Amino acid sequence: MLSREKLAPSSTAARDAAHTDVGGTGGIAHLEARGVTIEYAKPGSKEVTTAVEQCDLTVERGDFVCLVGPSGCGKTTLLNAVAGFVKIADGVLELDGRPIPGPGPDRAMVFQHANLLPWRTVQANVSYGLELTKKVKKAEAKQRADELLELVGLAGVGQQFPAQLSGGMQARVNLARALAVEPEILLLDEPFAAIDAQTREVLQVELLRVCAARDVTALFVTHDISEAAFLSDRVCVFSPRPGRIVKEITVPWDRPRSQEIRRTAEFAHLRDEIADVLYGTKNGVGQEAYR
Ligand SMILES: Nc1ncnc2c1ncn2[C@@H]1O[C@H](COP(=O)(O)OP(=O)(O)OP(=O)(O)O)[C@@H](O)[C@H]1O
């Protein structure tokens, strides 16, 4: 049976208060995109591809926000801009009120393919980023890696090599590796897309637990409506390219969440609400995007 706590809608008043002045920042959002446009140059031509156009998004510290939308609408591009990998052509993109200067240890990207270094142990894969920063001694980096492996449910596998792990275990290592540099924001680009459905559901619960434990903000790109509904505080639905957010849908449950939520009528209703916007039956993106 579902506990009242697990199903209880978040306190709107508390959330509003938090959004007004998170951590005493005087109303400055943790991440703010206003009128963001991002273009790619076409090789050998003066033309550009506009991937994202006039996109607005506000993310407060500790939020978990999912981005969904048609293929090629610019979700990854926006994530890359927040990571500092691509520059914006127009608009404002700020972290804590300051323009994003480029990549930094305050943001960590988690990609779909773990791409772990096959010749390094699992522990050495997780500690690698920390060792590169040279801010901690090797022994401390190893100790932190072991703590993170325990956090993601992989205690005891640190001396194994990536090839000895299942896809789900590699996804956990991928997450631990991103957390090693203690980022404030996790940028996750379909990190569980290649994982079987059953394991993916377990990983989603684990991810929420880990985010709460580490107090990180998460921006998560997915094509999976159920995944977005289960993970998010808010689901942002993109238009087709050039992408902008056409609708934000608030998810009414506190986090972390348990698997039981997926079997409730409220969850089915929420999934339908997202699909309605995405597939065009309500204010949406339009069926033509999917033809
Ligand atoms: N490096 C690049 N150079 C040129 N064009 C690019 C580049 N990266 C992406 N694009 C183009 O920008 C648009 C948005 O791509 P992006 O990968 O951001 O979309 P997406 O919503 O993440 O797609 P998907 O859901 O299929 O992964 C696409 O038209 C894509 O071809």
Structure characterization notes:
Residues 1-25 are annotated as: Disordered. One of its GO terms (molecular function) is ATP hydrolysis activity. The chain has 291 residues and is an alpha/beta fold. The chain has helices at residues 4-7, 12-20, 75-83, 122-133, 138-151, 167-179, 197-214, 225-231, 265-279; strands spanning 31-41, 48-59, 64-68, 90-95, 98-99, 107-110, 185-189, 217-221, 234-238, 245-250. The chain has a 6-stranded mixed beta sheet, with helices on both faces. α5 packs across α6 (167-179). The radius of gyration is 19 Å and the shape is globular. 35% of the residues are buried. Mean pLDDT is 87; it is low at 1-23. The chain binds adenosine-5'-triphosphate.
Provide the fold topology:
Elements lengths: L3 H4 L4 H9 L10 E11 L6 E12 L4 E5 L6 H9 L6 E6 L2 E2 L7 E4 L11 H12 L4 H14 L15 H13 L5 E5 L7 H18 L2 E5 L3 H7 L2 E5 L6 E6 L14 H15 L12
Parallel strand pairs: 3-8, 3-9, 6-7, 7-8
Antiparallel strand pairs: 1-2, 1-4, 4-5, 9-10
Helix pairs in contact: 4-5, 4-6, 5-6, 6-7, 8-9
Bound molecules: adenosine-5'-triphosphate.
Adenosine-5'-triphosphate binds next to strand 2 and helix 3.
